[in-house]
Design goal:
Length: about 350
């Protein structure tokens, strides 16, 4: 069928503040024509009816239903209601979130809902009611196949409306950000990053399994692993927080990973790497560990520091390097909690 015979597709995408350039390049290569964008938010049109693209740096993707601009929230909700006429209703879920207003970690910025978007979500949910929405509250985690109505606050008075069908875990989380309720105050933000990496990877971490983290200080990620009931080894020349160091299921090697004998990894099923080391050096350390006869690692979650987004061009080369280890599966994602870095999830045979 020629393009003139199908309806165009309008897409809206969110990503980290600063990653929009890479998202634009990735979708333009797939035939999308770029339209309105802001840091952390991209819209585009495809001349044909097509599925939404995926990419390492795309955090959320929705079919766009248009936008509204007003200082009055109720006016914007009227506009949203107009856009919904003619669509199959009700939606299963309502997800409302703001675009990232700063790079992750800068001024302590973290992605996800904020006070304004939570108030807006409550108001939209109230106004739309059961004719439009099946969910009892806004911003619940969607089930696979749920139809989700998306509202992105590009600014508090400029909203974009869209919809998507939930499938993978990140598409089920409101705004692609995992809702996490820590048992204790996390030791560092790496707690959230590890929680997201573990959930996204689908690795079957079980209580009693042994996990090793390279680059473990001060201990946010180890805190998550301990909370999940694992035995944990942390490798880092820097000191661990005493709450982790004194935990009965934790052992610390105060050294650089490359300086330790392979036997300390014996019995470990899971390897997490989050050291401030250049990606090529990180990969050679991990290769030495996973290819050793003394180890039997099942899955690795490797944080690859980019430094700046231009270095994302190296990702295919790093992927080829990991392919040499003959893994069963490699997945790569710019996690919502990643700064300028990506996570490689590597399933080993
Ligand atoms: C981003 S921090 C890790 C945060 C940690 N994952 C957490 O959950 O709190 C990076 C760490 O990498 C460590 N590091 C740097 N080079 C290393 C190496 N060769 N081996 C092990 N750790 C290293 C640094 O000492 C630093 O503590």
């Amino acid at each position: 069928m020629s393009s003139s015979e199908t309806d165009p597709t309008f897409g809206m995408f969110t990503c980290a503040h600063g990653a929009e350039g890479i998202v634009k390049e990735a979708i333009a290569e797939k035939g999308w024509r770029l339209s309105f964008s802001r840091p952390g938010f991209v819209t585009a049109k495809h001349d044909e009816e097509t599925t939404l693209p995926t990419d390492i740096f795309i955090r959320t993707a929705s079919k766009s239903l248009g936008s509204g601009k007003s200082g009055d929230a109720d006016e914007l909700i009227d506009r949203l209601i107009e856009k919904l006429s003619g669509l199959p209703l009700p939606f299963d879920q309502l997800h409302v979130w703001p675009r990232d207003r700063a790079p992750i970690g800068r001024f302590d910025f973290e992605p996800g809902s904020d006070e304004v978007s939570r108030a807006v979500a409550t108001r939209i949910h109230e106004r739309l009611g059961p004719d439009h929405l099946r969910c009892a509250t806004a911003n619940d985690v969607a089930q696979p196949s749920d139809r989700v109505l998306d509202v992105v606050l590009v600014d508090p008075s400029h909203w974009f409306f869209g919809m998507h069908t939930a499938s993978t875990l990140p598409t089920r989380w409101p705004g692609g950000v995992q809702p996490v309720a820590p048992e204790h105050e996390p030791i560092s933000r790496a707690y959230y990053k590890a929680a997201e990496a573990i959930a996204w990877s689908g690795f079957d971490l079980r209580p009693g399994d042994l996990a090793v983290e390279v680059g473990s200080a001060p201990g946010g990620a180890c805190g998550r692993l301990l909370e999940m009931g694992l035995d944990v080894i942390g490798i880092d020349p820097a000191q661990m927080d005493p709450r982790i160091a004194n935990h009965p299921r934790f052992r610390h090697y105060a050294a650089r990973a490359g300086d330790l004998p392979r036997r300390i990894y014996r019995g470990a099923k899971w390897l997490l790497v989050d050291s401030t080391v250049k990606p090529d050096a990180t990969l050679s350390t991990v290769r030495n560990i996973v290819e050793s006869r003394e180890t039997s690692i099942r899955g690795c979650l490797i944080t690859m520091k980019l430094g700046d987004y231009e270095r994302a061009s190296q990702i295919p080369r790093w992927r080829r390097e990991v392919e040499r280890w003959r893994p069963e599966k490699i997945e790569i994602r710019h996690l919502a909690r990643n700064r300028c870095e990506v996570c490689f999830s590597v399933t080993l045979r």
